[in-house]
Design the sequence.
């Protein structure tokens, strides 16, 4: 069983601010790491899957990096918009998928 | 390509009853995972099925069980319901070809009175 920690638990930013949050996980037996975005009243949706140490992925204003040796991943949002408000979940995939508790982001207009 | 479907979407039961939830994965996906989400908690892993076999199991009591059929549809059952079982139950259809990327259904909101 992997212990997955995400920080901060919640974050309130103003529209236009850039922000980032962290996912940390045990680095042994690493296979892949997934980031999901979960908007209220919707289902979680996949953002990125990352597999290699040093991986960087980008989708629009959102990007992520991965360090498998030290067991962490960062998710960055540049120029936050109200529609970015959601809970962001990370899930390292070893033999199974275990999700962190998520970071709840609120972007105020 | 049809997405993941879950039925029912909402359910109200009383303590002591049992409930069965259903999930149909994306066509061609043979693996299904179930999660429970309660207020203030993240997604808690229940179990995963692959080709009709339970492949992984989370840390839930034996009252929680599941199965998968030959067409990959999956059901989960909770017996002797407790108030604490009130939660959103999400099913995910797993893509083996994409490092187990998961595609989630809309969930079943279970309320136990």
Sequence:
């Amino acid at each position: 069983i992997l212990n997955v920690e995400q920080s901060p638990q919640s974050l309130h930013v103003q529209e236009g601010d850039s922000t980032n949050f962290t996912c940390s996980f045990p680095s042994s037996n690493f296979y892949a790491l997934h980031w999901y975005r979960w908007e209220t009243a919707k289902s979680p949706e996949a953002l990125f899957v990352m597999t290699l140490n040093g991986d960087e992925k980008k989708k629009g204003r959102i990007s992520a990096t991965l360090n498998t040796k030290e067991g962490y991943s960062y998710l960055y949002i540049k120029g936050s918009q109200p529609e970015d408000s959601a809970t962001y979940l990370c899930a390292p995939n070893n033999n199974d998928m275990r999700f962190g508790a998520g970071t709840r982001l609120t972007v105020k207009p | 390509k049809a997405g993941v479907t879950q039925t029912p979407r909402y359910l109200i039961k009383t303590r002591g009853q049992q409930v069965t939830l259903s999930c149909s994965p994306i066509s061609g996906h043979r693996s299904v995972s179930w999660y429970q989400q309660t207020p203030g908690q993240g997604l808690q892993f229940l179990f995963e099925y692959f080709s009709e076999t339970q492949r992984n199991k989370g840390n839930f009591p034996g009252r929680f069980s599941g199965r998968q059929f030959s067409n990959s549809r999956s059901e989960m059952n909770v017996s002797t319901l407790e108030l604490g079982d009130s939660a959103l139950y999400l099913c995910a259809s797993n893509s083996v070809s994409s490092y187990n990327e998961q595609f989630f259904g809309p969930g079943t909101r279970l309320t136990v009175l």
About this structure: The interface with chain B takes residues 1, 31-32, 34, 36, 43-46, 49, 51, 89, 91, 93, 95-102 of chain A (CB under 8 Å). The radius of gyration of chain A is 13 Å. Chain A has a mean pLDDT of 91. The CA atoms of residues 6 and 105 of chain A lie 12 Å apart.
